[in-house]
Amino acid sequence: MLRVLACLAFAVLAPAAAFAQGRVTGVVKDTDGHPVKGATIVAESPNYSATTVTSDAKGRYSFLGLRAGAWTFTANAPGFQPSRRRATTRMMGVNPPVDFELAAVTELAPPGPLASLDARALQQELAAAADLEKAGKLDDSIAAYRNVLARVPILTSVHVQLGVLFERKGDNAAAVAEYQAAIKADPANAKARAALDRLARH
């Protein structure tokens, strides 16, 4: 009897637990409605670390574990122009899908910065840079984040992270430059604006 009750409790609670993990799904298609396989989708937030996934053979992708708040999603695939969407996610309930329609690259539009980059490799690089920061190796962490930005300038949230690192080093001028770069690329970046306001008062 206890085993039956436990199974019933799991059946009731499991969906709720899944909803509480900040799941965001979507589909990446081309302008003709065909699914785009292997697209790289980057989720960025001014408050949390960037994360990446890739689309499957049907163009579907899924993020699990995104924290509640405003996120910017960027999709890119070889032969297509990048596309960016913004969405506010919730930890509870079902988040609306974030779908993309990618236009083919023309002669006047070069491939996007993520076209030849593996999503898993990018995630590993970001994690390694964060680990260096946690270990107190600020200069090494800054160099690692700069290497990411040099190859993937579309990751504007990295500018914010660099600003935080420079503040920790006491180099407010460099921090201001990074926050300004983040705002130039993403005017809605609230964390960068708040940091600039804070530094201006000191």
Element order: H for helix, E for strand: HEEEEEEEHHHHH
Low-pLDDT segments: 1-20
Task: Tell me the overall shape.
Answer: globular
* CATH architecture designation of the largest domain: Sandwich
- In CATH, the homologous superfamily of the largest domain goes by the name Carboxypeptidase-like, regulatory domain
Largest sheet: 4 strands, antiparallel
State the end-to-end distance.
Answer: 65 Å
Q: Which CATH class of the largest domain? A: Mainly Beta
| Whole-number mean pLDDT | 81
Approximate helicity band: 40-55%
Work out the strand percent.
15-25%
Layout: helices, strands, pairs:
Elements: H1 2-19, E1 24-30, E2 40-44, E3 51-54, E4 60-63, E5 69-76, E6 83-89, E7 100-102, H2 119-134, H3 138-151, H4 157-169, H5 172-185, H6 190-200
Q: Concise description?
A:
It is globular and about 50 Å long.
Keyphrases for this structure?
Immunoglobulin-like, alpha+beta, globular, 2 domains, Serine Threonine Protein Phosphatase 5, Tetratricopeptide repeat, 202 residues, 43% helix, 6 helices, disordered N terminus, 4-stranded antiparallel β-sheet, single chain
Provide a descriptive summary of the structure in words.
A hairpin with a 6-residue loop joins strand 2 (about 40-45) and strand 3. The protein has a four-stranded antiparallel beta sheet, covered by helices on one side. The chain has two domains: about 20-100, Carboxypeptidase-like, regulatory domain (Immunoglobulin-like, Sandwich), CATH 2.60.40; about 120-200, Serine Threonine Protein Phosphatase 5, Tetratricopeptide repeat (Alpha Horseshoe). About 45% of the residues lie in helices and about 20% in strands. The protein is an alpha+beta fold. The chain starts with a helix and ends with a helix. The longest helix has 18 residues, at about 1-20. The model is unreliable at about 1-20 (pLDDT under 50). About 30% of the residues are buried.
